[in-house]
Amino acid sequence: MRVNIISKANQVLKYLDPDFDTEGVDEGDWEEIYCEDFFSTGYADDAGAAHMFDYDYETGIVKFEYEGSEEDLIEIAKQGGDGGVEYIDDFLKKIKLFEEEFNIEWEIYEFIDDSGEDLGKELNQHNVHKKVTKELKKNHHLASFIIFYQEFLGYGEKKQPDDELNAVKKLMYKWKIISEKDDDGEVLELYEKIREGIKIYEDGFLKIGHTISNLNLDDNQILTFVKACIEMYLFTNSSDGKFTGDELVSDDEIKYRFYEGYDEETKKAFKNLKFLEIINDSIGDNKVVKILLDMIMNQLNQQKAEAIQNDELTFLIGKVNEYVSDLDPTPFLEYESFPLRWEADVLIQDYDFKENTLNLDEGDDKYLTSIGTAIEIKKYDNGSYEFWDGVYYKESHSWISELNNNKDYPSFSLLNKKFEDFESLKSFLDETYG
Fold first, then answer.
1. What is the pLDDT of residue 184?
2. Are residues 227 and 277 in the same domain?
3. How many separate domains does the chain show?
4. Same domain, yes or no: 145 and 220
5. What mean pLDDT is predicted for residues 332-347?
6. Are residues 169 and 267 in the same domain?
7. In terms of domains, do 263 and 138 share one?
8. Minimum mean pLDDT among 109-113, 330-334, 344-348, 376-380: which range?
9. Looking at 118, 139, 168, which one is the last position of a domain?
10. Is the domain of 111 the same as that of 151?
11. Which of 187, 280, 375, 394 is placed for a possible disulfide with 288 were both Cys, Cβ 3.0 to 4.6 Å?
């Protein structure tokens, strides 16, 4: 017989005793449930599991290891506790109960009997479903915390007076914190447990913080949770939905501090997010702080990019309007954002039959009823530009379909150039049209 069951690192091997009343008690004095006490029942099946059990709070790794015969392990169990043990799967059942109690995730799971059969194989298949269920339970906790937070902020009640939870449910569905198929039964039950006995919100946040530290959330869950909380905060405070950090931190302190050291107005604005400071301390490694800073910096970079693009649009619109102002007919600006586009009709008297770009027969003016000129400037995501100035077909008729063979830009461009940056485009315009 061989048992080799090893958890992943960073498992939470202790949690707050649910029967302990934390009111008025310093957090350092709270009573907790420890993993080493799980098998201390005095019964033989627990004694057998305990014989294989090892743990390390620092690494967060637990192990069940044994090499020997089934008979020897059963005998060790009988000597260590009361009650009978007939089959080795009694020990496997105890390990499974331990797993569920502490939400353990396994790296290796082998429980091989004397015949060579791996009794843990079926359990491994069960764990795939169990992992999904466990992640959903974590999300239920996060959803219950958001409900508590929305009560603190007045979210939902302010925006949805007919159903104070309606707005927050929509927010949770949006972030996929809970499934739309879920009836919220467990979420609301968890929320009631948070709310029970809480006289001031700070106590509730501390309770949430202690609970969340035992959930072993992954980075994606933390990110989703924080973004949902921020969106709720902004929505409730009637902001325009942009998270610049202006209401949280001052520019010169943004990278250095999370709460202390700001002026009174900033502190006042930050008060509603005290909750996230507690969550940050509970999760550790300043993960929430980093998320907030990333959100702030991303928003600032986005605003900077938008400002630059607006400056470019203003410049290009002004320049091209200046260049085409003397043309007859004068092209008019059709789109004021990228791609910028100016259009004008081509009249029969304006068409250059000597150049005859479209190979038309002189005097056959029916072709010109669907022809125009256009200038277009397109900006790409990599910051490069493309420019067109030419003749195009404004309507799609069967008699010209074979000519419109460019699916991206159906035209006969007289000019078509690409530019790596804005300065190159500016130089081209000045040299060509200035």
1. 58
2. yes
3. 3
4. yes
5. 85
6. yes
7. yes
8. 344-348
9. 118
10. no
11. 280
Percent of the chain that is helix, strand, coil (3-state, to 5): 50, 15, 35
pLDDT for 241 beyond 50: no
- By the 8 A CB rule, do 243 and 234 touch? yes
pLDDT of residue 245: 44
Where does the pLDDT of residue 199 fall: very low under 50, low under 70, confident under 90, or very high at 90 and above? confident
Q: What is the predicted pLDDT for the residue at 35? A: 92
Q: Could you tell me the residue range of the domain that residue 354 belongs to? A: 326-433
What percentage of residues in the chain have a pLDDT greater than 90?
Answer: 20
Taking the model in full, what pTM does it have? 0.48
